[in-house]
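Hi all, long-time lurker, first post. I run a small reading group and we've been trying to get comfortable going from sequence to structure in the token notation. Rather than ask abstract questions, I figured I'd post a concrete chain and ask someone more experienced to write out its structure so we can walk through it together at our next meeting. Sequence below, copied exactly:
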Amino acid sequence: MADTIHRYHWEWFFKVTKTEIKGANGSVFVFYGLHDHNADNIKSLEGADFCWVAEAQSISRRSIDILRPTIRKESAVFWWDFNPRFSSDPVYVDYVRNHDDNAKTLFLSYKDNPWFPKSLTMELVADYERDEVRARHIWEGELADANETFVCPAELVEAAMARTIRRPNPSVPVIGADIAHQGGDEIIFYKVIDEKTVDKYFARYQGAVETLRDLKTFATKNSIINIDNGHLGAAVADLLVDDGYTVNRINFGGKPKDIDHYEDTVTEMYFEMRDRLLVADIPKDEELAIQLYTRKYLYINGKRGYEVMKIEAKDDFAEHTHALHKSPDRADALVLAYYDPIGSNDISSIAGALSTYGGNK
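-- Answer (accepted) --
Happy to help. Here is the structure in token form:
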């Protein structure tokens, strides 16, 4: 903005300082960062008329949730400019995926720039010759993950969240318990009866004693508890078994039931969840939705000498969803709740839904 003021010789009207630009008519431009560590600084902006968020694709959900209610003047207007990056970026979710009725969305590329220089035309041509998929992201705004392979399609996740099963068939409750190791990750329990998620529990920064107490309150002796057998989960599972609870210890990196298609148990769990989404009723939760539909998979040369499917590692997941979360805790707990480690589920209803959906897996 300072360069523009100088270019048009507007110094007589605007005074530029290190932290703001003041106009002779009383207007003031102020500038703030929106990283998580300093997002609270913007709470002094309640009198702003206009808010321009630049490079909004990198803004976290927490920062957006702080900013929106801060700009509360009746006639205030937001501008969000961003280069489309991932389908899970909060600004993309809010204004493109969810089609906010109060917002106008404009898609612009180099084709809309009448001053597009010849030097950049040369770069564009070279990028297309090197890698057309990457070039479409750089020059035309196609999502960087548009050509990636995801386990759970967004439309299936959204349909399962919109579905309502009012009277689930009586069955043994199944609890999915993903237990973090006293760090910043969430401790999550979901309870499933038939195909309906009927209850949920979230906590952070808890040890084994508190987690065991809360899980006993959440579950009952007639429940089946599928628990992540890593770290704190193994200790909690031992204590549950000692108290007479039915526990399935699930080793995410263990051997799957279907060794012909999946490399490990966690991959099989997510693909079984994909099928269950055709008939399930799951909680309406944006964080859960994004964790489900942004988990990628790939084909690898597996332990048994042929190609199988394998879900991406948590570190890789965190890299492309860093603006939202570090670990897919909610999704992991949900797939645990819907997973049958024995393989005894009645899949007739799922098979029927699959045929309706088109047989896609």
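A couple of things your group might point at:
Residues 168 and 194 are 6 Å apart (CA to CA).
The chain has 13 helices and twelve strands.
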